[in-house]
Amino acid sequence: MIIKQEPELMEIFCHCEGKNRYSIRDEHGREFMRATENTCCCYMRCCCCTNRRPFNFTVDDFDEHEIYLDRKVSCNSCFFPRCMNKVVVTAKNGETLGFEKQRWSMCKTYFNIKGGNSEKVLRISGPCCTTSCCCGNIKFTIKDMDGHQVGSISKEWGGIIQESFTDIDNFCITFPVDLDVKIKAVLVAATILIDYMFFENTKEPKP
């Protein structure tokens, strides 16, 4: 899957954090889902919590099928292990599809991908440094419970202008063909959380 963050005019011209929106596309670039942030408090987005803010996303497939991503306010610091990031993914009928939960670590970033019954399905490990070097991509590795790599979440280099002047980010997700569709939904949630944790509000506005 390809997840492309859509540009916000308010951010470009006013340097004010708007609601995030993402276009979710297949490997051929065809859009089949869209994720829209429902956070309504401008103060929370711009001044109070910024990228640590709680969020709720609606992900729809243009055919009245929806899933919801929910994160409470959290802390990215390793000094507060009880306040790690967690995203809950639910269906329109209220069924819990799965969870993404950050694991405590001093250096690298780790996440557990869990099913609806809290069973561990996959693990995600991030690099020690999430700053793009030499105009390259930044990769988070997806592994099964036996430690074998089965995919990745890659933050794609968007070019010098996009990377320097905006926080618009594009991601590519690879995973096994036969992966449960519910876990695919959790990987979408994982990608959005990774964007918030490491790439949201990381650029200083330029006058």
Automatic annotation (TrEMBL):
Source organism, top-level taxon: Eukaryota
Entry's transmembrane regions = none
Q: Which UniProt keywords apply?
A: Calcium, Lipoprotein, Palmitate
Q: A single Gene Ontology molecular function, please?
A: phospholipid scramblase activity
- Is the keyword DNA damage assigned to this protein? no
Q: What does this protein need as cofactor?
A: Ca(2+)
UniProt keyword annotation of Cell wall biogenesis/degradation present: no
* InterPro entries in UniProt: Scramblase
Q: What's any one GO cellular component for it?
A: plasma membrane
What family does the Swiss-Prot or TrEMBL record give for this protein? Belongs to the phospholipid scramblase family.
- Give the protein's biological function: May mediate accelerated ATP-independent bidirectional transbilayer migration of phospholipids upon binding calcium ions that results in a loss of phospholipid asymmetry in the plasma membrane.
Extract the PANTHER family matched here.
PHOSPHOLIPID SCRAMBLASE, PHOSPHOLIPID SCRAMBLASE-RELATED
Q: What is this protein called?
A: Phospholipid scramblase
